[in-house]
Amino acid sequence: MDLHLAANYDLELIDKVADGSVSTVYGKCREDFVGGGRASYMGKQIGFTELAWYIRKLKERGLEFSYLLNSSCLGNREWNRCGQKKLQRFLKNLLQAGVERVTVSTPFLFKLIKKRYPEIKITVGIYAQVDTVERVKFWDELGADAITLESFSINRDFKLLGKIRQSTDKELILLANHICLLNCPLQPYHQNCFSHASTLAPDFFVDYCYLECNRRRFDNPESFISSQWIRPEDIGRYIDMGYETFKLLERDLPSEVLLNRVRAYEKRQYRGNLADLLVSHSFGRPKIKAGFRYFLKQLFQAPLKSLLQARKFMQRQGLLYKLEQPPVNIKADQIPPDFLDRVVERDCLNSCCSECGFCKKVAERAVELAEDGRLAEYSAMIEQLESGEFWNV
């Protein structure tokens, strides 16, 4: 089993995982020309000099680094002369920093790198939405070194996973511990929002999609179960099918949280709160003072009153900030031992959750939510955004 671990740039964490199942660490600069899969305020500020040092230390420990160029949209900047010059300069800087592998989600950028920098290995990112045999073949024929499958929807579709595995001998990667809604209709919009919110000059960004997804989760606890995450206990079944590489989220979480996730999947067992392995909020962020400093930069984008209210909301909800008690408890010992077997019997992609009810029954036993008005606060913030009240318009 190979694990690809999110980078928080803590070398002490790397020392603790280097002798285990982790083979690759993935990350990026907080902002760059291409953008990526997370907004800039969620990342640690890191320049090319520090990146080069980090990559060198990883190599000394036998680990590979994959730089994320995984945005779903470059804002059409790639189609003008100025944008091309900036892109080429940026790619050369990555090479000089020691980057030997990148993760890409757009075909044009993939082909450009292949032709201009053939020495770079390329992993296809999850934003490419590879979820069929034909899409796998597309990237395989382009020369991908590895392909990340669209785990948000197909992690529990074993019939499809089997056909995909048989269609290529390339490395296939599954995202193991995400908690996105099954077949989330907000996904394309969310990916584009993140892509534009991580460029060199990001506009003011409110993660509306994340707010709406959380509201839906707290309103429907069964969505914590129906999400396509993989339990540590079930990882062996995927390995038996030929899937040996698993990606673990989340970038810039505290090292103890990331280490806990690595150990759980290495041991193939977790007896605590599964939310510790899955959710990205309530843990806080190491060495990130994005909160107040970020909002000060946006004074001309929204009223100060709204910005301060948003900051208070983020603190209450544990978004970038640490909470003493997690708002979600997914009791691992209350998940049926044969959970995966019973899920794969169902056609989750083509049926209605309300008609099935299996995940709802599991959630009634296994999911415990804090009774603190959280759902009402999410609903109120979303209403402010949707009505325009946040901007006083």
How would you describe this structure to a colleague?
- The chain is an alpha/beta fold and 393 residues long.
- The protein has a single domain (2-391), classed as Aldolase class I (TIM Barrel, Alpha-Beta Barrel), CATH 3.20.20.
- 44% of the residues lie in helices and 11% in strands.
- The chain is built from 19 helices and ten strands.
- The protein has helices at 11-17, 48-60, 81-96, 107-116, 133-142, 151-154, 158-167, 187-196, 208-219, 223-226, 235-241, 255-267, 275-278, 290-296, 304-317, 339-344, 353-356, 358-366, 374-387, and strands spanning 2-6, 22-27, 64-69, 101-104, 121-124, 146-148, 171-175, 245-248, 328-330, 367-369.
- It has an eight-stranded parallel beta barrel with strand order 1-2-3-4-5-6-7-8, surrounded by four helices.
- Strand 4, helix 4 (107-116) and strand 5 (121-124) form a beta-alpha-beta unit.
- The termini are far apart.
